[in-house]
Design a protein that fits this description.
With 289 residues, the protein is mostly helical. It has two domains: 8-234, no CATH class; 237-288, no CATH class. The protein has helices at 8-24, 35-67, 78-101, 103-109, 138-142, 147-162, 174-179, 183-189, 207-212, 235-252, 256-264, 267-288. Helix 4 packs antiparallel against helix 10 (235-252). The longest helix is centred in the first third of the chain and has 33 residues, at 35-67. It is globular and about 75 Å long. It comes from Actinospica durhamensis. One of its GO terms (molecular function) is glyceryl-ether monooxygenase activity.
Amino acid sequence: MNLTTYAIPAYVLLILVELVSYRFVPDEREQGYTVRDTTTSLSMGLGYVVLNLGWSAIYLAAYQGATHLTPLHLHATWLSAIAVFVGWDLCYYWEHRADHRVRILWASHINHHSSRRFNLSTALRQPWTGIGNLPFGLPLVLLGFSPAMIFTAQSLNLLYQFWIHTERIDRMWRPIELVMNTPSHHRVHHGSNRGYLDRNFAGVFIVWDRLFGTFTPETEQVVYGLTANIETNNPLRVAFHEYAAIGRDLRAVHTLKDRYTVLFRSPGKAYTTVKRARTAAAATAATAA
């Protein structure tokens, strides 16, 4: 059950409320909205809604197939609903962490970090591709949760994450900041500051980051965007530019090890490997000349 589609009117309303709030309560430290950036985010969101129909069908088929591999089949109760919600949030933490640490997965997720602004419309920059994330939901199927329960938990998780994409909320009550993912925690995640890279992967519960050593509090002004920003507002380029970069990088390297690095190791290691290969090729060409 994908609840995010039904939430679209609420998304639009809350974005308008936040937009108007900048008119009446401006803050020079906050980025606010621009027409081009917001239009790109909205376009990315619409693309996600359409393309997600196909991806959801693939996920459903895989989940249904996995139900035949397990003897466990849990009924939908309040207890199982809570369990699948928490269970998916843990799975999401590892999915999200992999999205940042495996380059071919980063190619899908990078569009969510492409905006240099941080507002509610940024939450709509969702991936247009995503088959690589399929394995992260399968453990829940094998534990006996039905595909419908998992899809509902995934939708609720995504709904929660919408409101934390804002600069309008500073810090929240300390116990909430301790346990839950909040705007402050998620601003860190969207930062390109060196100390903020690959931190705070949580969906709903920040406790996962605290447990697995990836938590960083917000201590300095966040610089939003990528370490190497793309100069485009074209939704197609935003969605697929990293795949194109991977294709170029695969042509630049020549060993199986380097090609593996380009595809499956972290973006930083991939970029370093490609830079080294291109430097070596340039040196060889210069010597030959």
